[in-house]
């Protein structure tokens, strides 16, 4: 246990700003997602209207127009439908240590928040440690299966399946047979997006040219919140001849959209339907987004807590469960929707197996 806990907790509060503003409610509850094999059951005491929910954001926090905002939408939906007693939202900072993440989670647990949700794989080690210290508190983590314990729920997604669909869309819409992928940080999770995107594009056009670039390398996670570098990466691809660029880069995606607009090209968003959430002057360049329904997963977890039915272990939101998909806002892919839905059904049926890493 760290010494002088409460002094360090105060520092953590200063490092992570509390964000309490309201955002638009997200998607509906998806009851078809099932615990993955090996997930053990650990029923919680029902929280209902008395629940105090703590949520620890990844870098960028509420307002990133992507991953964190999807989580925030799930929390907002729970506020409206489950009558939560209190919520507390804390944000991660660029370049912070695992100790800072530990103290953020510990601050919430010490404050009586139960359940607590950590948004992003970067909380893996800190959450596992803090969950062991607070065995009566229920925790959930998005995008990580390594932090396990009797009071930890792992909310997972088949990002590669959704990315296959937008990769196919990119190839179908590209006039130059040249597309690109911008990843925020070179980690296995983002490699799933890249692998699926490449597989989808090549399923349509086996000889298509695909550029790929990551903004930062671990332990630097700033690539998820650096629009300027996102713009530079995408601009290089457009200058080299690409006409569609997909990003899986969190808050850096805004820069990818700026580059697409300047190049008169097209972009593909991620996590949220970014043709609705991006800056208004950039929405028209977003032909589709790979929608990852973090809002559904967050709401499902909070509802299961309210119902006294929390399960520990992995719950996977894949294409079959409706956990990932592609968006159609703006009508730019209406002409290829039938083809994309054919690929979608082939993935769901098992006729197509989408790789989650590049060979």
From TrEMBL:
<keyword id="KW-0449">Lipoprotein</keyword>
<keyword id="KW-1003">Cell membrane</keyword>
<dbReference type="Pfam" id="PF02608">
    <property type="entry name" value="Bmp"/>
</dbReference>
<dbReference type="GO" id="GO:0005886">
    <property type="term" value="C:plasma membrane"/>
</dbReference>
<keyword id="KW-0732">Signal</keyword>
<feature type="domain" description="ABC transporter substrate-binding protein PnrA-like">
    <location>
        <begin position="58"/>
        <end position="357"/>
    </location>
</feature>
<feature type="compositionally biased region" description="Low complexity">
    <location>
        <begin position="33"/>
        <end position="44"/>
    </location>
</feature>
<dbReference type="InterPro" id="IPR003760">
    <property type="entry name" value="PnrA-like"/>
</dbReference>
<feature type="region of interest" description="Disordered">
    <location>
        <begin position="29"/>
        <end position="49"/>
    </location>
</feature>
<keyword id="KW-0472">Membrane</keyword>
<protein>
    <submittedName>
        <fullName>Basic membrane protein A</fullName>
    </submittedName>
</protein>
<feature type="signal peptide">
    <location>
        <begin position="1"/>
        <end position="22"/>
    </location>
</feature>
<dbReference type="InterPro" id="IPR050957">
    <property type="entry name" value="BMP_lipoprotein"/>
</dbReference>
């Amino acid at each position: 246990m760290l010494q002088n806990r409460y002094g360090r907790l105060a520092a953590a509060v200063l490092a992570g700003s509390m964000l309490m503003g309201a955002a638009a409610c997200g998607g509906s509850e998806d009851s078809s997602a099932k615990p993955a094999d090996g997930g053990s059951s650990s029923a919680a005491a029902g929280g209902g209207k008395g629940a105090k929910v703590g949520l620890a954001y990844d870098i960028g926090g509420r307002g990133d127009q992507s991953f964190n905002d999807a989580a925030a939408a799930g929390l907002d939906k729970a506020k409206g439908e489950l009558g939560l007693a209190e919520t507390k939202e804390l944000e991660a900072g660029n370049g912070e240590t695992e100790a800072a993440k530990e103290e953020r989670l510990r601050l919430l647990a010490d404050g009586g928040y139960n359940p607590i949700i950590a948004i992003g794989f970067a909380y893996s080690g800190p959450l596992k440690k803090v969950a062991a210290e607070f065995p009566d508190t229920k925790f959930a983590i998005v995008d990580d299966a390594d932090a396990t314990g009797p009071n930890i729920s792992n909310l997972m997604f088949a990002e590669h399946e959704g990315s296959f669909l937008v990769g196919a869309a990119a190839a179908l819409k590209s006039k130059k047979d040249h597309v690109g992928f911008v990843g925020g940080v070179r980690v296995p999770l983002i490699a799933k997006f890249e692998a699926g995107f490449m597989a989808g594009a090549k399923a349509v056009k086996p000889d298509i040219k695909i550029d790929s670039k990551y903004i930062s390398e671990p332990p630097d996670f700033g690539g998820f919140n650096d629009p300027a570098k996102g713009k530079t990466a995408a601009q290089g691809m457009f200058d080299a001849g690409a006409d569609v660029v997909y990003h899986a880069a969190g808050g850096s995606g805004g820069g990818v959209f700026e580059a697409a607009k300047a190049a008169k090209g097209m972009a593909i968003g991620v996590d949220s339907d970014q043709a609705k959430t991006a800056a208004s002057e950039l929405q028209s360049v977003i032909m589709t987004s790979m929608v990852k329904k973090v809002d559904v997963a967050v709401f499902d977890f909070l509802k299961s807590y309210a119902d006294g039915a929390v399960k520990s272990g992995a719950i996977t939101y894949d294409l079959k469960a409706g956990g990932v998909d592609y968006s159609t806002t703006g009508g730019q892919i209406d002409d290829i929707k039938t083809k994309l839905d054919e690929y979608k059904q082939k993935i769901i049926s098992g006729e197509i197996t989408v790789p989650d890493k590049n060979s």
